């Protein structure tokens, strides 16, 4: 299932997620999109990722979601989070 975002792509949603899970994951997807579109505070992004991991603790599910999200949006969850962990910069702005 996909939920339409305020941009021109949809957010991946897994069966069995409740309203809270959908809110947490949607905020994370939005944070990833912001990292590409306008930039985002590194700490805010990492906190959003930590919340996302409470809903999606499985690496394989995270990879599956990441592939769906990137296919639809062009934004890589993996590359964005990897960069956030490696950089010391307070603000993150990804290149498309």
TrEMBL record:
Pfam families linked to this entry: UPF0223 (PF05256)
InterPro entries assigned: BH2638-like_sf, UPF0223
Protein name: UPF0223 family protein
Origin species: Weissella sagaensis
């Amino acid at each position: 299932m996909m939920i339409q975002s305020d941009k021109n792509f949809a957010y991946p949603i897994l069966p069995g997620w409740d309203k809270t899970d959908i809110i947490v994951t949607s905020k994370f997807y939005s944070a990833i999109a912001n990292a590409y579109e306008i930039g985002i505070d590194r700490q805010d992004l990492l906190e959003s990722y930590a919340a996302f991991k409470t809903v999606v603790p499985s690496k394989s599910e995270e990879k599956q979601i990441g592939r769906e999200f990137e296919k639809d949006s062009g934004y890589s969850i993996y590359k964005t989070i990897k960069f956030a962990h490696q950089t010391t910069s307070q603000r993150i702005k990804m290149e498309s």
